[in-house]
Amino acid sequence: MALTAETESRLYRSLRAAAGAAAHLVALGFPTAVAVLARPGSSLFSWHPLLMALAFSFLMTEALLIFSPETSLLRSFSRKVKVRVHWALQLLALLCALLGLGVITYNKHLNGKAHFVTWHGLTGLLTVLYAGGQCAGGVLLLYPKLMKNWTLAKLKLYHATSGLVGYLLGCASLMLGMCSLWFTASVTSVSWYLAMLCPLLTSLVIMNQVSNAYLYRKRSQH
């Protein structure tokens, strides 16, 4: 029997809610697993994977999921509160990323190793720089009068789109990090594939959220 439009819509919302809940669990679970694996404090390097996992798996994911109509932890709060929490989480993510970058740079310096010669290193550097630019660009949403020829709606659209690009870069950096000798020496077999699925899942959820927000905004304009 064919599903009605209302049933399909309800099913779609339920699937999005389930995927969002899974994204919350992954956002917290992945850095926790990295912390157990890295044992922060056991070496200078041990802080690098933890800080980067916190930045791009937990803080940045939660900063974006705040605006999800199905799975936001602040659904009952006003848009203004959500924006403030989004800002706080993004700034914390940038701080963790900068600290993680500083740690690995100093660690390589101490060990006489070359900097940014792997795809993971280059992508990580690009991601941190991009995140800094994205946070700076977000200031325009707080003070839209600085861009006189741009409407607030257009600024929001470009900020969301560029933010998605930055988030995907962060996920790519995490996945490349899981191809490193340190990670593959500790995580093998099925566990490695499950770990790789973590940033893949959250990126799919965030992409769906952003695309739906774009479609909703487009429909509201007609």
From TrEMBL:
Its cofactor is heme b. The chain crosses the membrane at residues 17-38, 44-67, 87-106, 118-143, 164-185, 191-216. It is an enzyme of class 7 (translocase). Its EC number is 7.2.1.3. GO terms for cellular component: endoplasmic reticulum; membrane. It is found in: Membrane. It is a multi-pass membrane protein. Its main location: membrane. Keywords: Electron transport, Heme, Iron, Membrane, Metal-binding, Transmembrane, Transmembrane helix, Transport. InterPro entries: CYB561D1/2, Cyt_b561/ferric_Rdtase_TM. Coiled coil: none annotated. GO terms for molecular function: metal ion binding; transmembrane ascorbate ferrireductase activity; transmembrane monodehydroascorbate reductase activity. Residues 12-217 form the Cytochrome b561 domain. The keyword Electron transport applies. PANTHER family: OS05G0565100 PROTEIN (PTHR15422), TRANSMEMBRANE REDUCTASE CYB561D2 (PTHR15422:SF21). This is ascorbate ferrireductase (transmembrane). It comes from Nyctibius bracteatus (Rufous potoo). The gene is Cyb561d2.
